[in-house]
Amino acid sequence: MAVSSERYAALLGRAxxxxxxxxxxxxxxxxxxxxxxxxxxxVKNLETGKSSPGIKMFFAPEIVxxxxxDEPDSGRGTTVLSECxxxxxxxxxxxxxxxxxxxxSSPVSLExxxxxxxxxxxxxxxxxxxxxxxxxVIDSFQEKFxxxxxxxxxxxxxxxxxxxxxxxxYGKLSWLEIASKSRIFLFDIFLLGPQAFKNGLQMxxxxxxxxxxxxxxxxxxDCLFHQYGxxxxxxxxxxxxxxLQFSVETGGFLPHRVCTLQECLMQHLKIPSKWDxxxxxxxxxxxxNPDIWFLRPFPxxxxxxxxxxxxxxxxxxxxxxxxLMSDLTAIVHDYLNTYRSGSGGHLWSTKxxxxxxxxxxxxxxxxQTLRKxxxxxxxKMNKDGLLIRPxxxxxxxxxxxxEDGNYRNDLDHSPTNKAVSHLASFYNQGVLCQEKLEKxxxxxxxxxxx
Length: 450
Description:
By secondary structure, the chain is an alpha+beta fold. The protein contains 15 helices and 13 strands. The strands form 2 sheets. The chain has a 7-stranded antiparallel β-sheet. Strands 8-11-10-9-12-13 form a 6-stranded mixed β-sheet, with helices on both faces. The relative contact order is 0.09.
C-alpha cells in the first residue's frame, strides 16, 4: 500500500518499506522532519539482507516511495521488529547502504536502546517523591519552536545546559536545555539539526544583553562554535563562580580542583540527595551507554532530569551572586550607618573630599586574615599551595568517624552532621558576619580607651 508524504505523520511507530533511488529498506518509522526526511529505526536493507543497528535518516529528495507493511492490529509490526532484532544479533556490522544512498546512520544500536530503557525503568521507578517540574520538548519547527525562542529573547537571564556524546568540536550535541524563570525548553538538536541555530537559537546565544548561566561552559562553547558557528557571550559560569567563592571564603586560597554541578548544588542550594541520585544515575547510564542521547522517543525520566538541571542552574546563580556580594553588602550597610548613627558633632571638621581609606573598609583585612587562618586549620595544602578540596566520598567518611579513623573535627560541627550540611556550612555567611562584628566591637573598644 503506497502512502503519500502527507500521511507520514500518521505512520509513526509503524513498520514501513522505504524505496530510495538507490535501494529498498524496511524499518519502524520514528520521526518525520519538517522537510519530510524520515528517521527510521531497526532498518533492514532488503536488497542485501543486512540490518543496520541504530536510526537511519532518509532524505526527502532520495525517497521514491513509502509503503505501509503492517495493518492495524495485524501483529505484523511485532514480527518485523523481532526479525530485525535477530538480524542485529547475527550481524554486528553497521550497514550504511550503498554510496550516495542519501541516508545517515546514528551510532545507536537496538540492543543499546533496549538496555538503556530497561535501566531507566529500574533505576528511576523507585523515586516516587521526585520534584515536580514542567517542561516543553521542542523537536520540530512547527508551533512550539518560534514562540519558545521569542519568549527566551525577552529574558534578561536564562540557564543553558547541553547533553550529548563527547561534547566538544569532535562530539555530537543531542539536547540543549534553556530555562527562564517561568519556562523550561528542551531543544532536541538531534532531530532539529543545525537549522535550529539558524532559526533563532544562534541569535539568542550570541545576544550580549541576555545573561546565560552555565556550568563549565568550556566544552559546549567549543562544540557550538566549531560545529554551528555560535559564539557564546555574556556567560555566568557557576563552576568559576564557585571557585571564586571558595577563594573569598578562605582568604585568598584557591582549591586544587573544581566542583561538579551536583557538588555545587549540594553546597549552595542544599538540594535533596534524591535528586543527586537521579543525576548520578543519568551520568552512569551515559558513561555505560553514550548512545542513549540519540534514543528516540527519549525516556521521560531523563527529560525530567534535564529540566531540573536547567531550573536549578538559575537558583544556583542567585545563590552564588548573593554569596559573592555578601562582603560588599555588609560594608555598604556599615557605610550607611557611619555618620547617621553617630552624634554628628565631628562632621563639622570632616572634609567631604577626604580620600583616606575608612575603617569600614579596613575591616576587610581583618576578615581576610581570619578566613585564611581558619582555612589553614581546616584544609590540607598540596605542593602547589592549593587547598585540597575533599571529594563527596571523603565528606561521607567524615560523616561517619567509625569509618574514618583519621577524622578530626576542625570545623564547628559534630561528626554526625550530614555531609551536605558539613560542606555547606563553610559557606554560611552568618558565621563570617559574626566574626566581622566581633572585630568591629574590638576596634570600637580600643578607640574608646583614653
